[in-house]
Fold this sequence. Notes:
By secondary structure, this protein is α/β, with parallel strands linked by helices. The chain has a single domain (12-250), classed as Rossmann fold. The protein is 43% helix and 15% strand. It has 7 helices and 7 strands. It has a 7-stranded parallel sheet with strand order 3-2-1-4-5-6-7, sandwiched between helices. The longest helix is centred in the middle third of the chain and has 28 residues, at 110-137. It is globular and about 45 Å long. The protein starts with 11 loop residues before the first strand and ends in a 9-residue tail after the last strand. The mean pLDDT is 93.
Amino acid sequence: MSANLFDLEGRVAIVTGGSRGIGREVSLAFARAGASVVVASRKLENCEALVAEIEADSGGSALAVQYHAGDWAANERLLALTEERFGRLDVLMNNAGMSPLYDKLSDVTESLYDKVLDVNLKGPFRLSALAGEKMAAADGGSIINVSSVAAVRPTPNELPYGMAKAGLHALTLGLAREYAPKVRVNCIMPGPFLTDISKAWDMEAFEQNARANIPLARGGQAEEVVGAALYFASDASSYTTGAILKIDGGTVYQPA
């Protein structure tokens, strides 16, 4: 085992939703740990900008791929482009997600419902099934899902999203069994994070609520997921699979 348990030298990692927020910080961290990184997201220009930053920051190799998690065929394309460029895949982080706002549950349209389930659950299922099979037939690897505390503490304001993320927990456990022993599958469960999505929040109300209801009394910063992502991606977690790790400041222990 490497003297540096978190070393990713020589490995290839895909990060979906990789150009912003948590995905951006993880993409940078993987590259700094030695991995070649595929940054996959809907806006190609954002992916390309981050690839340029990665190459300047760490001198590592990176690839930008336009990718929509809700598009079934896009998953095969993403893997094909990764193999074409790097010849292998060692780490997959399913980070792409969406949670559109709505006024009340009866206002949720079929289109909105389908989009939320497609991006948050259907995409990770298809991409993980394809990637896990390839990893298991090769040298093994690690799949990391990103869920949300909404999976275990859903509110009416994000119920379809919470339902999809709960499904992601079930997916994590099922994949961990299906592709063992060569592929480890784990899940990071973030609480409220101050990423791009928080720009739409009433921050004064959020901060007041955080002081009252979050033990650490604040929202998380994107870089605070990096340690967990490196742990699951690397040999440091060589005996960890089927785990769901909450990173939420203690949120889910509070009353609803």
